From TrEMBL:
InterPro entries: Endo/exonu/phosph_ase_sf (IPR036691). This is Uncharacterized protein. PANTHER family: BNAC02G09200D PROTEIN, ENDONUCLEASE_EXONUCLEASE_PHOSPHATASE DOMAIN-CONTAINING PROTEIN. It comes from Hibiscus sabdariffa (roselle).
Length: 260
């Protein structure tokens, strides 16, 4: 990225970072310990972007949402708000741990209603955070969200939100695609169970799942996974071409037999 802005942490707690490239102009309007409020300008449009980190403590949630609401004097501006809200909005957005707390969620909904914002749906999964434990100790929650005003949506009618893998963090990455999803580039990878019937599938996985050197320990799994995914895609395309050739040959044989 070409430029950046930071809110320093207090000791080991908090801290925010924002990076952007030169194809947009970002002006910092105001910032605090748990938010960065900006104006984003490009050749196509101009809008307001607020990055947030909601407090995890129940007694601070009301003050937080009231302070974020005070950033906008009216509801006529194009506004997009992204970040970790630290709010579970419904029981369907939580799995494991303590029961859903509706009292904590009320300030979030009050903020949305008073600011005339909508929550964008996210493709690719229900939960954005986990405690990274397994079986009975696992806790999964949707804490990260993107909220937008209706006139912001009018400027980006094809907008799409995609949930990517959580590799080096306990939060999954949210990708906001203003012009929509490039289906060719962003096609979702799915492992087909029928591949396990192919003798060479296991060999492809073993060849791809090789040790990764000169890489941070937290990224090793992600690198192996990406390489394996790429190899399986190539193998699948080749398999498909071979299968198509076999199908054409079989059709020709059927035609010949039917002709006799």
């Amino acid at each position: 990225m070409d430029d950046s802005f930071y809110v320093d942490p207090i000791g080991l707690a908090g801290g925010l970072a924002l990076w952007w490239s030169n194809d947009v102009h970002v002006s910092i309007i105001i910032h605090g310990e748990i938010f960065i409020d900006t104006k984003v300008s490009s050749s196509e449009d101009e809008w307001l972007l607020t990055l947030i980190y909601g407090p995890p403590y129940a007694e601070e949630k009301q003050d937080f949402w009231e302070s974020i609401a005070s950033l906008r004097s009216n509801n006529s501006e194009k506004w997009c708000l992204i970040g970790d809200t630290n709010i579970v909005a419904s029981s369907e957005k939580k799995l494991g741990g303590l029961p859903f707390n509706a009292v904590q969620a009320k300030w979030y909904f009050y903020f949305m209603d008073s600011s005339c914002l909508l929550e964008l749906p996210i493709k690719g999964g229900t939960f954005t955070w986990s405690n990274q434990r397994s079986e009975g100790e696992a806790i999964l929650e949707k804490l990260d969200r993107i909220l937008v005003s209706t006139n912001w949506i009018s400027s980006f009618p094809k907008v799409t939100c995609v949930l990517d893998a959580a590799i080096a963090s306990d939060h999954a990455l949210i990708i906001l695609l203003l012009k929509g999803m490039n289906k060719r580039c962003m096609k979702e990878f799915k492992f087909e169970a029928k591949w396990l019937l192919e003798d060479d599938c296991e060999a492809k996985v073993k060849d791809s799942w090789v040790p990764v050197v000169n890489c941070c320990k937290n990224l090793v799994f992600g690198r192996k996974l990406n390489k394996t995914r790429s190899k399986l895609r190539q193998w699948c395309r080749m398999k498909g071409r071979n299968n198509n050739l076999k199908e054409e040959e079989m059709k020709e044989q059927i035609k010949f037999l039917q002709g006799k």
